[in-house]
Amino acid sequence: MDENRKGCGKMILQSSMSRLAGFIVCLGLCIFLFLASNVYGYANTTWATAWGAYVHFDASSEHVIIRDIRLPRALTAVLVGAALAMSGAIMQALTRNPMASPGIIGINAGASFFVVAGVSLLSVSGQSQLVWFAVAGACAAAVSVYLVGSVGREGMTPLKLTLAGATMTALFSSFSSAILVSDEGTLDSVFFWLVGSVEGRKLENLLPMVPLFLVGYVCALLLGKAMNVISVGEDVAKGLGQNTIRVKIVSLLAVVVLAGGSVAVAGPIGFVGLVIPHIVRGLIGMDYRWIVPYCAVLGPILLLAADIAARFVAYPKEVPVGVMTAIIGAPFFIYLARKELMPK
Predict the structure, then answer these.
(1) Which of 248, 246, 270 is nearest to 259 (CA)?
(2) Complete DSSP assignment for 295-333
(3) Which of 68, 107, 114, 277 gives 20 to 30 Å between its CA and that of 98?
(4) d(CA 147, CA 152)
């Protein structure tokens, strides 16, 4: 018996060490892409130029581009990528639906509608104001999808939740379109934002958002152990003494804060929250104590890589990063839909 316990303990230790090593490698890749995002773009700059922009700033055009344009852009990609991936992982565990994500379940569309309505009807323009509209819209969408998906004798099922999300996405998107069609001024001001973009973000507008994202990150990380239990099933979780109502409320708040903040900063960028959790589970297994931290690193990796590619795929013009993530995520969504929803 003692030997078996020692053997199990050794396997757990080895598994933890391998996961930690993988996390460090991913973190290193994330840092490299963050630095590369500061170097590569329309303006021809080098790694030495980027280093000089921070160490020996001389107000040249290259240094200004790196510090005032590319740095906020890279920081936005990191914050938004982590937020979308972590919120997607929480949603998939909470609903036990492998197709759940802020984009698929309608949260992005709800946040976008509230932002468009705020800009058009209330003339809201400040980032600090828009974030609260985005969070309110994300909350309204999340509650609506949950209520619609829970109707019926069977309660909430993955298929019903997916259909409810698609319905609410179409509804909120049509509301947004109706406002934009009748208000050309709003369309001009938010058109590029609506497709999802990290371009043109200012550091002074981004920094006030950091505390909101940090609150969401901390909540998501602390939910890892609870997600392991509730992902097995609500009845099992209750049998193990877990307060499922409290876990659901905290999880919903974390998702709303992360997804709403992401929409307020970068617009409705899709598929990051769908793709990354699946990649992470394929790499390290089903332990959400590791899945959530891995998502916090792999989400930025995907968004940084997509943003760098977006600068050159139609050079000299740039493609919004939301288009790049859709190109990556759409085939994955089709594959997942066929795998999960088709009769076996």
Answers:
(1) 270
(2) HHHHHHHHHHHHHHHHTTTBTTB---HHHHHHHHHHHHH
(3) 114
(4) 10
Residue 194 pLDDT class (50, 70, 90 cuts): confident
- Residue 344 clears pLDDT 60, i.e. is over it: no
Q: Tell which wins on pLDDT, 9 or 65.
A: 65
Q: How far apart are CA 239 and CA 337, in angstroms?
A: 32
Angle in degrees, CA 73, 91, 155, rounded to 5: 150
Residue partners of 264: CB distance under 8 A and separation at least 6: 111, 115, 127, 130, 131, 133, 134, 135, 209
3-state DSSP call for residue 23?
A: helix
Among candidates 333, 206, 189, which has minimal Cα distance to 273? 333
pLDDT of residue 12: 52
Nearest C-alpha neighbor of 266 from the set 29, 83, 89: 83
> How do the residues of the chain divide into helix, strand and coil, expressed in percent and rounded to 5?
80, 0, 20
